[in-house]
Amino acid sequence: MNDRKIPIPLNCGLDLIAEVLYGKWKVRLLYFIHQGNKRPSQLKRAIPDASQRVLTMQLKELEGHELIEKTIYPQMPPKVEYTLTPLGKSIMPVLLALGEWADANQYQLRRAIEKSYLPMLGS
Fold first, then answer.
1. Are 91 and 30 in contact (CB under 8 A)?
2. Which residues, in sequence order, are bridge partners of residue 80?
3. According to DSSP H, which parts of the chain are helical?
4. What is the pLDDT of residue 84?
5. DSSP-based three-state secondary structure for 20
6. N or C: which end of the chain has fewer CB within 10 A?
7. 36 exposure class (CB count in 10 Å sphere: 0-12, 13-18, 19+)
8. Any bridge partners for residue 68, and if so which?
9. Given this model, what pLDDT does residue 78 score?
10. pLDDT at position 1, please?
11. Is there a contact between 38 and 81 (Cβ–Cβ < 8 Å)?
12. Spatial distance between the Cα atoms of 10 and 29, rounded to a whole number of angstroms
């Protein structure tokens, strides 16, 4: 079904974290769910640049990796909410610390990122 041609390396903690958090919007999704944005429409408003399809796919992956859980309320129309699992809550201090590090170093990081794109723009 979903057989991978290249096996996922899961040899160390960094491999595991890369597999679980790899995806353009996953860290933001975790952050916004942590902040209280639990409904799909709230998450879409919080991340307007992301397509609904990609957000849904990455939410499913986070759910599959047991960082979030999805609750569907039996009403019409159905109401869906996402919450962090205990595992998801346990990663938040790490993600928040990374965000603080990036904020403290944002000028150097922005300059380095922009500089790394200059050679690509000239070709």
1. yes
2. 72
3. 13-21, 26-34, 40-46, 52-64, 86-104, 106-122
4. 97
5. helix
6. N
7. exposed
8. 84
9. 86
10. 43
11. yes
12. 23
Q: Which domains does the chain have, with CATH numbers?
A: 13-122 (1.10.10.10)
Residues constituting the chain: 123
CB of 46 within 8 A of CB of 59?
no
Q: Return averaged pLDDT per consecutive 10 residues of the chain, 123 residues in all.
A: 67 87 94 92 94 95 97 90 97 96 95 81 55
Nearest CA-CA partner of 67 in 93, 92, 94, 40? 92
What is the structure's pLDDT at 19? 87
30 residue type, one letter: L
The most distant pair of C-alpha atoms in the chain lies apart, rounded to whole Å, by: 55
pTM, rounded to two decimals: 0.84
CA 115 to CA 109: how far, in whole Å? Answer: 10
